[in-house]
Amino acid sequence: MSQRPILVAMDLEGVLVPEVWIAFAEATGIPELRLTTRDISNYDQLMRHRLGILKEHGLKLADIQRVIEGMDVLPGALEYMAWLEARYQNVILSDTFYEFASPFMRKLGWPTLFCNSLVVDDEGMVVDYRMRLLDGKRHATLSFKNLNFTVIAMGDSYNDTNMLKEADFGILFRPPQNVIDEFPQFPVATEYAEVQRLIEEFAQTK
User: Tell me: the pLDDT tens digits for 5-20?
Assistant: First the structure.
């Protein structure tokens, strides 16, 4: 058994909950909002694109939050989190926003979440966003390692790959084919049972 305890760091959207922007695109009928970090690796470019569409259509934070309230976590996510919490410390590292995340955190039992913030004007329009820390997932992973944790990381998109590279063991969960092709060094899981197996197999080597 490793002298360093294992900590599992996970992305949120696409890993534990559905993609918010895709759900909002479907609710509003605006297909341009379907783009995510699976499609555009430059996060600032992606967010500027989204903010422009929100402004163009007069859509407010409350409109997005209304859609989020009606969303549920991915099938099997609650059982997976219960399994994980009984065995390993864990944290969610996400590029989502605190203004989006509360309904999901409530449904997941309030796990620890590090994410970012939105800038909202007096009329409720989303006018900007603030990253808590640039490349925050990688920095958090590196910091956990410096705190003497063995870090397992799991994500699905381009914006997770720096975290996966920095971790002691990285897992891609239901990634698009372009991410699989560009990052063949990471094992791919499509079901939570596969994630559990990969975590246990790695833990047994430590």
Answer: 999 999 999 999 999 9
Report yes or no: 132 and 114 within 8 Å, Cβ to Cβ: yes
- Measured CA to CA, the distance from residue 174 to residue 171 in angstroms comes to 10
Six token digits for residue 156: 């699905």
Can you give the length of the chain in residues? 206
Is residue 11 among the annotated active site residues?
yes
Question: In the predicted model, what is the mean pLDDT of residues 58-63?
Answer: 97
Query: How far apart, in whole angstroms, are the C-alpha atoms of residue 203 and residue 190?
Result: 20
pLDDT of residue 42: 86
Architecture of domain 6-17+74-115+131-204: 3-Layer(aba) Sandwich (3.40)
* Rounded Cα–Cα distance for residues 172 and 160 (Å): 9
User: Can you tell me the distance from the alpha carbon of 119 to that of 178, in angstroms, rounded to the nearest whole number?
Assistant: 32
Question: Residues 98-120: what's their mean pLDDT?
Answer: 95
DSSP bridge pairs for 89: 7
Helices (H), the chain: 20-28, 43-57, 61-69, 77-85, 98-107, 136-146, 161-166, 177-182, 192-204
Map out the domains of the chain as residue ranges.
6-17+74-115+131-204
- DSSP secondary structure of 152-185: EEEE-SGGGHHHHHHSSEEEEES--HHHHHH-TT
Catalytic residue among 11, 156, 160, 166: 11
